[in-house]
Amino acid sequence: MTATQQVKAVSFNRALLTLATLAVTTAGGSCQSTTTDDDISTACHVYTYIVNLQHELNGLRKSLPNDEEASRKRQRQYTIAAQLAEDQTQKCLIAAIAADAAEMADSLRREAQAASQRITDGIEALQPLIAEAAQAAALSKVSFKMHTTPGANLDNTAVAVRLTPNTVEMTKCLEKDENGNLKLNTKTITRQHHKKLKVANKQQLTKELLDPAVKLTTQASCDNTQGEWAIWGTAAKSCSTTTPTTLAPAIHTPAELNGKAQITEHSLFKNDNPQADCLSPDEIATATTPTEKTLLHSLCKALKTQMPTATPTKLQGEDLSNSPAVRQVAQGCLPNFMKKSKMEQRDLDNLKNFLKTTYGESAAAFQAKFKHLVEEAEVQVYRDGEVKSVKINTITTPVEQHDALNRLRSKQVATKLASRQNPATTDQKESGHKTGEKKEEQNKAECVATAEDKCDKTKCEWIKEKSKCKVKGASAVISAVIKAPLLLEFLILA
Asked: Which N-terminal residues, if any, form the signal peptide (predicted)?
């Protein structure tokens, strides 16, 4: 390598080193843009952080999903389609999908309710912590000034000096950005970077308050140790007396008299890892009472709440056959499985394979088999002031769902009754007519007496006006074969 090449190589390496340094610096600066436990060092910091936790939990509770409607819509449509289907296997398979959709909707609602309760418990656990932090922050903000009329002659031997507190401005305790979001030391608060929970030490709140001091002007004769606090006799023993008017009392505010932050740290997570599980109440060693342990544990569970999700089962064989709800309902209505009181593993495997194949290997295959039974099928509902035929997939309310189901069931019951009461074939109809005619002819042959005492009253009746014995009710009774269809037709039309 030539000298020129060596120079170029060194320059190139230096350039790489410079870029690497810049990258590290930038990364470090980026890390510093969010908070850690080290950013909480005052009562105001504690108050700000805990209030921010409350804002976070309130936002999480408001954002909990309420979108079970997608599953409810599928449940409605497939329940109606199952009632409409005529083939037993199709009816069963469609009903199983409706059951799966209902389970998905119920599951999402249960998870959302449980999450909401955990978050509510966490917010309640924060309330005493917020109150204590607010007290500590308020005390830390208290300062004093000389009263506008600071002196009073108490008697011939004493003069008093009084102070008055400055206005406490808690708004300055909460640092916010231009969007109103809380910040700590001008940094964005990132809870996931905080390993412990820092709270106000409620047993030591008074230490947050500064020690007010008044400075008195004396003659230049004080030669004892300066800057150290001692009993009054020691602090002023060598100072010459002077007239009270020259003492000129004034507020003295050295830094050492400021209040001291009283902060307690609690470990809420295993190994102080915010990504890990919560410690049990008994494992929170820094809490001093069972109630405090329970509250801190509730807060941790709230902070660990995951947003519940419920994605509807894909309408294809692989996914539907893996649904416990689909398998359970299908097992109860498919002819090959419904009579089994106990399902062996082989039966379960056969059921799963049957469902996978029958529903279709893909979404397209499923659509080809079931689209006409669900999306394209029509039922009757009362809508816009009249009964009309509508597609099943346009039914979006529970009222219309039950309206459609009841109309379907009524129609199906009427059809079944008609099939039972009407002879199914021409031969059966003719046989019924012949049986009735034969019975009537037989009765006529027996009702021919010309005297009332000879007329058989069990099968015949005596017509006094005509002095005749005739078949009982022959002129008024309509045979059941004729009456039943007429009655059914009347009920349907009504």
From this structure: 1-31
Tell me how far apart the alpha carbons of residues 225 and 230 are, in angstroms, rounded to a whole number: 10
* Single pTM value for the model: 0.67
How far apart are alpha carbons 381 and 391 in whole angstroms? Answer: 10
Cα–Cα distance for residue pair 375/259, rounded to 1 Å: 73
Give the integer Cα–Cα distance in Å for 412 and 410.
5
Return d(Cα 163, Cα 251) in angstroms, integer: 8
**pLDDT for the residue 54:** 96
Per-residue pLDDT tens for 196-230?
999 999 888 888 887 888 888 887 778 777 778 88
252 close to 241: Cβ distance less than 8 angstroms: no
pLDDT at res. 285: 93
pLDDT value at residue 3? 42
Task: Render pLDDT for 311-364 as a digit per residue (tens, 0 to 9).
Answer: 889 999 999 999 999 999 999 999 989 998 899 999 999 999 999 999 999 999
> In angstroms, rounded to a whole number, what is the distance separating the alpha carbons of residues 384 and 407?
17
Torsion sign across C-alpha atoms 440, 441, 442, 445: positive
**Distance from C-alpha of 46 to C-alpha of 23, rounded to nearest angstrom:** 33
Stretches where the chain sits below pLDDT 50 are: 1-31, 475-494
Residue 490: which H helix or E strand, with range? helix 480-493
Query: Dmax over Cα atoms in the chain, in whole Å?
Result: 162
Contacts made by residues 216-220, CB under 8 angstroms, sequence distance 24+: 216/247, 216/248, 216/249, 217/242, 217/246, 217/247, 217/248, 218/242, 218/247
Smallest CA-to-CA distance from 378 within 407, 398, 358, 399 is with: 407
Here the tokens at position 476 are 């008024």
Q: Are strands 386-391 and 187-188 parallel, antiparallel or unpaired?
A: unpaired
Tokens 């009524």 found at: 410
Cβ atoms 453, 464 nearer than 8 A: no
What gap in Å lies between CA 347 and CA 331, rounded to an integer? 10
What are the distances in angstroms from CA 352 to CA 236, 315, 326?
96, 15, 10
d(CA 119, CA 299): 8
Nearest Cα to Cα of residue 403 among 411, 269, 29 = 411
How far apart CA 454 and CA 457 sit, in angstroms, is 9
